[in-house]
Design brief:
- Helices cover 35% and strands 22% of the residues.
- The longest helix is centred in the last third of the chain and has 25 residues.
- It is α/β, with parallel strands linked by helices and 210 residues long.
- A hairpin with a 5-residue loop joins strand 1 and strand 2.
Length: 210
């Protein structure tokens, strides 16, 4: 099964510079304004970590790569929360699951890893917050940084990852909640995991042509 890896074009917040004896260095962008904790890790070897990432290109490829009876998880990565949604074992329906209140990268990654293990997750669909014109801004850069740092964790599950365009996901969910006359407090409590479900369902529906 063919997999892709991040290249210097894909990872827009740093540039790989080849040197003698195959050495390389990473030059981080100053444009990143959120998820700063991820950026405290060693970027000097990030190109090597990126080569280990199991990034798949399509939802169909992701589902085909899953172990039997494993599930998908949708991830809405924000600066203050990580919204999570789980798919069923038949990969048809996404359900809001949990919201991780962010602290620092280490505890956040540990909480995510525990959920992946406990819920028999075999693959991740992570929202890619592109700008409305399709360009990659600071939030996309921060998402790539988060993924790269996960590869530096020995105990983090080695799972295939699909990056899925999440434009308008939060807005769509908030509109649904407003139409249901959901209170502001309730919206704040559920919007992130519902956005994760919106992202995951979008990827699932693409497989079946919905």
């Amino acid at each position: 099964m063919r997999r892709t890896v991040f290249s210097s074009t894909d990872i827009s917040n740093f540039h790989i510079v080849k040197g003698e004896a195959g050495s390389c260095r990473a030059e981080t962008s100053k444009a990143i304004t959120e998820l700063q904790d991820e950026l405290q890790y060693d970027f000097g070897r990030m190109s090597c970590y990126a080569k280990q990432m199991q990034i798949v290109e399509t939802p169909t490829e992701l589902i085909r790569s899953l172990a039997p009876n494993s599930r998908l998880i949708g991830v809405d990565l924000g600066s203050k929360t990580i919204g999570l949604a789980l798919g069923d074992s038949q990969h048809k329906i996404a359900t809001p699951f949990y919201t991780i209140r962010r602290k620092k990268f280490g505890p956040d990654a540990a909480a995510l890893a525990e959920i992946l293990t406990n819920e028999n997750v075999g693959g991740m669909v992570i929202g890619l917050p592109l700008n409305m014109d399709g360009s990659a801004g600071p939030r996309v850069q921060a998402t790539h940084a988060f993924l790269r740092n996960l590869t530096n964790l020995d105990k983090f599950p080695d799972l295939p990852v699909l990056l899925w365009d999440e434009r308008l996901s939060t807005a769509a969910v908030e509109r649904t909640l407003l139409e249901a006359d959901t209170s502001r407090a309730k919206r704040a409590d559920v919007i992130d995991k519902m956005a994760a479900a919106y992202i995951l369902q979008g990827a699932i529906d693409a497989v079946y042509g919905v």
